[in-house]
Amino acid sequence: MKFLKLGIAVFTGALLGLPPHFSFSQESNSLFSGKEDTAFVEPFHDYEHIPDFTYSEIEARVKKMETDMPFELNETIFSFIDYFVVRNRTYTKMMLARRDQYFPLFEEALRSHNMPEDIKFLAIVESGLNPKARSRVGAMGLWQFMPGTGREYQLYTNQDIDDRMDPEMSTEAAMRFLKNLYRRFGDWELALAAYNCGPGNVNKAIRRSGGKKNFWEIYRFLPRETRSYIPQFQAIMYVLRHPEYHNFILEEDAYPIHYEKIAWEAELDLEKLVEVTDICLEDLQMLNPALLSNKAPANRKNKEIRIPSYNFDYLVENQYWIRDSLKVQTERLLAENVKEEKEVEKPQIVTQTLTYRVKPGDVLGKIAQQFNVPLSNLKAWNGLNSNVIKVGQVLQIHQDESAFNKNIASSTSAKEMVEQENGSKTYTVQPGDSLWLISRKLEGVSIEQLKRLNNLNNNQIKPGQKLIIG
User: Which end of the chain has less neighbouring CB within 10 Å, N or C?
Assistant: First the structure.
């Protein structure tokens, strides 16, 4: 009789349209016991269940997808789909939970630039939708900008703020960068490939392929990482469009933090703001990831602070007494620090950022000593939890302008300058160099002069390249 009831329950589940990973609770058997007042069906969802699928099923879904990017399924893309829906489901669930926080921002930016909306999935491949993501070579943010490329697109870094981690600023920069790459190659897949490995490597692959202009036609001539970059992007396009077919249901709903912006001209300590309001510090930190500490300096370019929408009206209505309260706290702290000494206004310290590529034999303490910065600061600037560094790793070093200029000047050695027979001089590009850094090293040589002397159409240079400097 027990087995008969179970069979009827499963049959009834099929009639109700419940998938196999739903089952009935013990109480649901009362449906067949004649006790109408206690009968109910309680669905149970198996979040760990991984539905089977075939290549032909995925192919049929792909063909029905409305996309504004090229997408033709092949074995390489299929293997990445299998990776995201079977082998690394935790990562995919995390992306599903984060997408509502950032996709609306990406979609708005893409519309304003008249670009394919599907490019929003690229940020998943780049950073896993983590605005504080850092690569092993020093790329940062949702769109993984290197320091030099970031500066080209007005993303600046100092000891207080890293614009590359600002979701809005970095997204706008990424749109402009990708649009420039598309103008260069006339193909979005090639533009995405160039975003990963650089336009020089894509041009090299095109030449080696005999002039082909399609990603899959130049595929085998691209760097190994880039060969998997586009297939990952396309696999993500499929998976996030069809999560229900692969039993991706979040156990807990993920809600984005809606926010408003408020202009704040003065220095702002987020911890002090939390003390005089009921704003959650973790929400403030999440909404303002570009701040490297809990303090927003007064001399920052972007004077706006993102505030959770649920606190915005209160903050606007009470901003005057809140500002006064924060000012009083600041003055009290200053008084405690200087005690009875008369406060003397200090000149603003202008900081600059220097990049340094780790060489064989380097140790972190030696690098800190070389640039006369505290070891603890060097570790904090680069997100290091230990003193372990790798050859080729790029470190960011923040210094005041005088120390920065001294290091720039001393970094130009006789070996880097070569006298040509015709009397002209050349400079060999060093790891971490940019046109801006080189112009600082070489007094009297501007960025525009360097570009004009070397017929450069943009600011992109590479280590080992020889530049005419005069």
Answer: N
Q: What is the pLDDT of residue 10?
A: 41
The rounded distance, in Å, linking the Cα atoms of 43 and 41 is: 6
% of the chain with per-residue pLDDT over 70: 77
Statement: residue 67 has pLDDT above 60: yes
**Mean pLDDT confidence for 315-336:** 66
In the structure encoding, which two tokens stand for residue 49, read together? 């269940």
CATH number of 55-246: 1.10.530.10
Percentage of residues in the chain having pLDDT higher than 90? 43
pLDDT of residue 449: 82
CA atoms within 13 A on the CB side of 374: 5
User: From CA 436, how far away is CA 417, in angstroms rounded?
Assistant: 17
> What's the rounded Cα separation, in Å, for the pair 208 and 351?
44
Could you tell me the pLDDT band of residue 357, with boundaries at 50, 70 and 90? confident
Q: What is the DSSP letter of 140?
A: B
User: How far is Cα 354 from Cα 370, in angstroms, rounded to an integer?
Assistant: 13
225 is catalytic: no
Q: Which of 126, 152, 172, 189 is flagged as catalytic?
A: 126
User: Would you state the structure tokens that stand for residue 145, as one six-digit string?
Assistant: 């900008």
Question: For the chain, what are the domain ranges?
Answer: 2-38, 55-246, 259-321, 349-410, 412-470
CATH H superfamily, domain 412-470: LysM domain (3.10.350.10)
pLDDT score of 349? 47
What pLDDT shows up at residue 48? 84
Retrieve residue 129's tokens.
């939708």
Count the neighbouring beta carbons within 10 Å of the beta carbon of residue 21: 16
For the cut 90, the answer to whether the pLDDT of residue 189 exceeds it is yes
Task: Decide if 414 contacts 427 (C-beta within 8 A).
Answer: no
Question: Confidence class of residue 221 from pLDDT cuts 50, 70 and 90?
Answer: very high
**Cα–Cα distance for residue pair 321/309, rounded to 1 Å:** 20
What tokens were used for 5?
A: 């009831």
- Give the model's pLDDT for residue 42: 55
Q: State yes or no: pLDDT of 380 exceeds 80.
A: no
What are the beta bridge partners of residue 467? 427
Task: Say yes or no: domain 349-410 is CATH 3.10.350.10.
Answer: yes
Q: What is the mean pLDDT of the chain?
A: 80
Amino acid identity at 207: R
Instruction: Return the bridge partners of 394, or none.
Output: 357
CB atoms within 10 A of CB 126: 22
The phi, psi pair for 260, rounded to 5°, reads: -125, 165
Residue 123 near residue 148, CB atoms below 8 Å: no
Alpha carbon distance 185, 404 (integer Å):
38
- Locate all alpha helices (DSSP H) within 20-128, ordered by sequence: 55-64, 75-82, 89-112, 122-127
